[in-house]
Amino acid sequence: MVLTRLKAKSERKLAKQICKVVLDHFEKQYSKELGDAWNTVRYILTSPSCWQHAILLNRFNYPSELEKDLHLKGYHALFQGSLPYYPKSMKCYLSRIPSRMPSERHQIGNLKKYYLLNAASLLPVLALELRDGEKVLDLCAAPGGKSVALLQCAHPGYLHCNEYDSLRLKWLRQTLESFIPQPFVNVIKVSELDGREMGDVQPETFDKVLVDAPCSNDRSWLFSSDSQKAACRISQRKNLPVLQIELLRSAVKALRPGGLLVYSTCTLSKAENQDVISEILNSCSNMMPVDMKDMARTCSQDFTFAPTGQECGLLVIPEKGKAWGPMYVAKLKKSWTM
């Protein structure tokens, strides 16, 4: 009874922190775009007590005792080898019930044993199908979780992590320092370029490119503490697709013929997701959609997907017990001939 009252009090406290300006805006947009599914999604997004956190183990400081403990606590391995290109070196665990491990502190010279993340953020990483020796570009890399996850999958010949925002760049460097041993740091380049210029600076250089683009970030926007800033963000929201398209055009230039490009966001917005990819496919004759239906089928036990109307795009929407996402993932391939 006491626990129930405490939980109710905690949820009321969190509910007060929800930014009404943002919620009202989402209500108008997403009730149209998602239909009835929005009611469930809204409940999860506004109820942090329902949120789940996955635990990505660090292969470079493998925590065998922690892995045993997770098994005993009822955690299960994500995907469980169901994807044909799921690397055995990647170990990620999750629980069906909301739970969170404590974050490890950053300590110079000590590698962290695990990384806490939204499990859906691994889908863009897996969609890249990274192989040993390949040249990879993570165009908008901060805070670094996807770069860390890429290095759990394979040993790239070269990993270029780029971040234009100087504060986020510091965060990226610290993340890499916390998870990656010195020998691997030698194959990683960190840069602070405007991502829109990367294609001109390094044309047709990379086998794989990940564009985890700046986006509306629905979860964090809902808990904006400053209503004026939130209103300003919403008014500027219509400009985001322009930036996202420019970043993708740059990524297309940086990608070698035959290479794979994966685009991802953590928003439900059709304008920032399907519409951006449609624009790239319509305007870049050398880019082809890659069917992702197999990934959706094999991952449906852990994730809930909303229809996107695209064979190359998946949209993870959160629901109770599978509170992952929002996460949009699209996969394109560069053809050999123009």
UniProtKB/TrEMBL annotation:
Highest taxon of source: Eukaryota
Cell location: Mitochondrion
Keyword Transferase: yes
Keywords carried by this UniProt record: Methyltransferase, Mitochondrion, RNA-binding, S-adenosyl-L-methionine, Transferase
GO biological process, one term: rRNA methylation
GO CC entries: mitochondrial large ribosomal subunit
Main location: mitochondrion
Residue ranges of every copy of the SAM-dependent MTase RsmB/NOP-type domain listed in the record: 45-335
Entry-linked CDD domains: AdoMet_MTases (cd02440)
UniProt-annotated binding residues for S-adenosyl-L-methionine: C140, A141, A142, P143, G144, G145, K146, E163, D194, D212
Gene Ontology molecular function, alphabetical: RNA binding; RNA methyltransferase activity
Active site per UniProt: C266 (nucleophile)
InterPro entries: MeTrfase_RsmB-F_NOP2_cat, MeTrfase_RsmB-F_NOP2_dom, RCMT, SAM-dependent_MTases_sf
Residue runs in coiled coils: none
S-adenosyl-L-methionine among keywords: yes
Family indicated by similarity: Belongs to the class I-like SAM-binding methyltransferase superfamily. RsmB/NOP family.
Name this polypeptide is given: Methyltransferase NSUN3 isoform X1
Organism, as annotated: Hipposideros armiger
